[in-house]
């Protein structure tokens, strides 16, 4: 999952294949690499790739603003789906 | 009566010292605290050589330091220049050089951008907010600079005709231009805005727009003027965060651009939203589709919705009184209080209702001109009927109806409006031509549901080049703010040419449709 997410971020936000271009805990906002339409695209990507549904009230930096945050968020959504 | 912009802060702080002025994340500041910080910064700037009329650049994200620095610079008798935090090195260097800024105020997040630029400008003093560990020897910690500085304003010698701000804006010629506004023009605009928006000290204004953009900046200026509170957010990037803060802080004024409203409406369709506290919703920067008027009512049932039109060169031109929105859902209304607008034909005569003409603006809110750009200033400022008077020619096409209400028809230049931001195709093309391997480049705007217009680049590449579309976007992103980076890049074997061998934009536009 980490590889898929990181690859998506590199290709679609940073337009590079260089893995060192971003650290896993780097904030997308601080790095100036994201804006509101970028967030929408990330959400569509994780919804389609991991079969989850992101609610509007989950569109928070804590869930979406770094590679690490995205991984933790997708994992918790998947765990919820299994439990439900 | 305030003659200088900063006096609005001193007056409000004297009247309501304990009232909340600013909420930015975990930081809440009273008017007393805002005033004290701004005064300390003013002294710190003075002791670093800032004199009346000197430009001080503020290169910061939407942080509390950015908001307070604006008043600190003014209290030092300086001219503030807020630079969008997304700005990349080359453009930052251009703005710092063009404005001949004496001091740069910035923050550690942006060190990677301003660091190399500042090294090339030995006379520039740099003050950096926050941690000092990473700073090089010729940069100072802003926090350290403020210690021991007095919290009373330094003596001021500026008068109302002096510059208060340079606001850099994209132009069709590629390089940004510094719009010169005096204390007088800004105070006048401020009072007019507060009057028609019917703001008072009980309001809480939301600002998700950059303070470098005059629409964002004036939210803060109006807050201080009325003694209300500003809820400052970095952006609308994470809508849920902003919507939570709106609810908990009881926001009453929601200023947005069509892209933000489109996102709100999309979210509303997924899960209904309702903000009963919001009393005013405002739109400018790009035309609000008329069907948004009624749909936004569902989200803001108690709000007046203001459709407005403006340009940085005079801050704001017109607004539709909210009572008229049902009768004239497409209109951007009438001149803001105390100003006048005219739609004139090529002979300079007022057009008849329904005919298209160019919009001219008359009032004390009109800019002095562009900094160091007499020719470009003359292109925008035309002689008025009184000796010495200047009218602002917007170069935008409008019609008026029988009641004198304005309707935007289109632009006469090729500026692209995306997310409410102005984008010069030439500026993007210049960056594209700077990329090794690109032979030809043309940049156009295409209609986009969310963005208004999206940027599309058509390029042809050298034979031995292995440039990909993604790689081109990345290289653009190194030089351009994110909103200017082409959303689409199309590589063609060759770009179509017109008869005189110029690249044929019309043929490319036709290809798109």
Sum this structure up briefly.
The complex is a heterodimer of chains A (84) and B (513). Chain A is built from four helices and no strands.
Class of chain A, according to the CATH hierarchy? Mainly Alpha
The total of beta strands of chain A comes to 0
Q: How many E strands of chain B? A: 27
Q: What is the C-alpha radius of gyration of chain A, as a whole number of Å?
A: 12 Å
- Spatially, the strands of the biggest sheet of chain B line up as 4-3-5-6-7
By CATH reckoning, the class of the domain at 7-256 in chain B would read: Alpha Beta
Overall radius of gyration of chain B = 23 Å
- How many H/I helical runs of chain B? 15
**Contiguous helical run count of chain A:** 4
- Enumerate the spans of chain A where pLDDT stays under 50 for 5 or more consecutive residues: none
The CATH fourth-level homologous superfamily of chain A: ACP-like
* Cα distance spanning the termini of chain A: 22 Å
CATH fold topology of chain A = Non-ribosomal Peptide Synthetase Peptidyl Carrier Protein, Chain A
The best one-word shape of chain A is: globular
Helix content of chain A: 55-70%
Q: Kindly, what is the distance between the CA atoms of the first and last residues of chain B, rounded to a whole number of angstroms?
A: 56 Å
Shape of chain B: globular
Helix/strand/pairing class of chain A, anyone? mainly alpha
Tell me the greatest interface. A-B, 24 and 31 residues
């Amino acid at each position: 999952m980490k590889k898929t997410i990181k690859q998506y971020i590199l290709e679609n936000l940073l337009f590079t294949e260089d893995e060192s271009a971003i650290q896993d805990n780097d904030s997308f906002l601080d790095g100036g690499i994201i804006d509101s339409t970028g967030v929408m695209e990330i959400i569509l990507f994780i919804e389609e790739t991991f079969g989850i549904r992101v609610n509007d009230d989950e569109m928070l930096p804590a869930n979406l603003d770094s590679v690490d945050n995205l991984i933790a968020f997708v994992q918790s959504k998947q765990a919820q789906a299994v439990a439900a | 009566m305030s003659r200088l912009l900063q006096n609005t802060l001193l007056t409000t702080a004297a009247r309501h010292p304990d009232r909340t002025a600013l909420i930015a994340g975990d930081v809440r500041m009273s008017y007393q605290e805002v005033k004290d910080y701004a005064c300390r910064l003013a002294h710190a700037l003075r002791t670093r050589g800032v004199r009346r009329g000197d430009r001080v650049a503020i290169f910061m994200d939407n942080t509390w330091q950015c908001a307070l620095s604006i008043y600190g610079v003014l209290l030092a008798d300086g001219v503030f220049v807020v630079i969008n935090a997304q700005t990349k090195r080359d453009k930052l260097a251009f703005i710092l050089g063009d404005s001949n800024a004496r001091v740069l105020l910035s923050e550690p997040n942006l060190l990677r951008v301003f660091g190399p630029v500042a090294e090339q400008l030995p006379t520039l003093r740099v003050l950096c907010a926050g941690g000092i560990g990473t700073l090089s020897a010729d940069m100072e910690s802003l926090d350290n600079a403020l210690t021991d500085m007095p919290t009373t304003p330094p003596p001021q010698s500026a008068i109302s005709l002096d510059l208060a701000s340079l606001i850099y804006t994209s132009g069709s010629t590629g390089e940004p231009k510094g719009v010169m506004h005096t204390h007088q023009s800004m105070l006048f605009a401020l009072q007019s805005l507060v009057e028609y928006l019917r703001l008072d000290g009980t309001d809480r204004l939301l600002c998700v727009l950059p303070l470098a953009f005059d629409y964002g900046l004036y939210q803060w200026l109006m807050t201080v003027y009325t003694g209300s509170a500003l809820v400052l957010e970095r952006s609308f990037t994470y809508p849920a965060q902003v919507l939570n803060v709106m609810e908990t802080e009881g926001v009453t004024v929601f200023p947005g651009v069509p892209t933000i409203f489109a996102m709100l409406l999309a979210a509303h369709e997924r899960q209904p939203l309702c903000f009963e506290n919001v009393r005013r919703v405002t739109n400018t920067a790009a035309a609000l589709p008329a069907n948004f008027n009624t749909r936004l009512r569902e989200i803001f049932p108690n709000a007046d919705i203001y459709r407005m039109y403006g340009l940085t060169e005079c801050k704001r031109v017109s607004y539709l009184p909210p009572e008229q929105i049902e009768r004239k859902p497409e209109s951007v209304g009438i001149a803001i209080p105390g100003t006048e607008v005219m739609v004139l034909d090529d002979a300079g005569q007022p057009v008849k209702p329904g005919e298209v003409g160019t919009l001219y603006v008359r009032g004390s809110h009109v800019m002095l001109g562009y900094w160091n750009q007499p020719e470009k200033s003359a292109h925008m400022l035309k002689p008025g009927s009184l000796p010495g008077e200047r009218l602002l020619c917007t170069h935008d096409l409008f019609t008026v109806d029988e009641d004198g209400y304005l309707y935007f028809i289109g632009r006469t230049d090729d500026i692209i409006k995306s997310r409410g931001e102005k984008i010069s195709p030439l500026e993007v093309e210049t960056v594209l031509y700077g990329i090794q391997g690109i032979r030809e480049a043309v940049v156009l705007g295409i209609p986009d549901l969310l963005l208004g217009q999206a940027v599309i680049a058509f390029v042809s590449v050298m034979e031995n080049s292995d440039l990909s579309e993604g790689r081109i976007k990345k290289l653009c992103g190194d030089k351009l703010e994110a909103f200017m980076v082409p959303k689409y890049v199309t590589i063609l074997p060759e770009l179509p040419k017109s008869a005189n061998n110029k690249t044929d934009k019309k043929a490319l536009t036709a290809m798109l449709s």
